[in-house]
Amino acid sequence: MSDATTVLLAELGGEPADVLSRLTQDEAVTVLTLYQTTRQRRRTDLDRAIDDILGFLPRLVRIPARKIMFGK
């Protein structure tokens, strides 16, 4: 298995899928890059959505609301 395939399997946290073991190094790098980019975009979109929702709350309530939701 290639390095990118190993990293991809670790990212997905599962057993080696048959299709992953058939990927070439270049294909594995492409799939890994797409996966990581998509995951980062989803995280960014979720953070933005949470900030937008918290933005509707009065300023004095935002910090306690964030601490209640996330423990930060």
Q: What is the compact description of this entry?
A:
The protein has 72 residues and is an all-alpha fold. 79% of the residues lie in helices and 0% in strands. Helix 1 runs parallel beside helix 3.
Any chance you could write out the topology, listing elements then pairs?
Layout: H1 3-12, H2 18-21, H3 25-55, H4 59-70
What does this structure look like?
By secondary structure, the chain is an all-alpha fold. Helices cover about 80% and strands about 0% of the residues. The protein is built from 4 helices and no strands. The protein has helices at about 5-10, 20, 25-55, 60-70. The model has no long low-confidence stretch (mean pLDDT about 85).
Number of domains: 1
| Radius of gyration, CA atoms, in whole angstroms | 19 Å
Order of helices and strands: HHHH
**Residues in β-strands, percent:** under 5%
The outline comes out as elongated
| Overall strand count | 0
Q: Which spans have pLDDT < 50 for at least 5 consecutive residues? A: none
Count of DSSP helices?
Answer: 4
Task: State the major sheet.
Answer: none
User: What proportion of the residues is helical, as a percent range?
Assistant: over 70%
N- to C-terminal distance: 40 Å
Coarse structural class: mainly alpha
Average of per-residue pLDDT values:
86
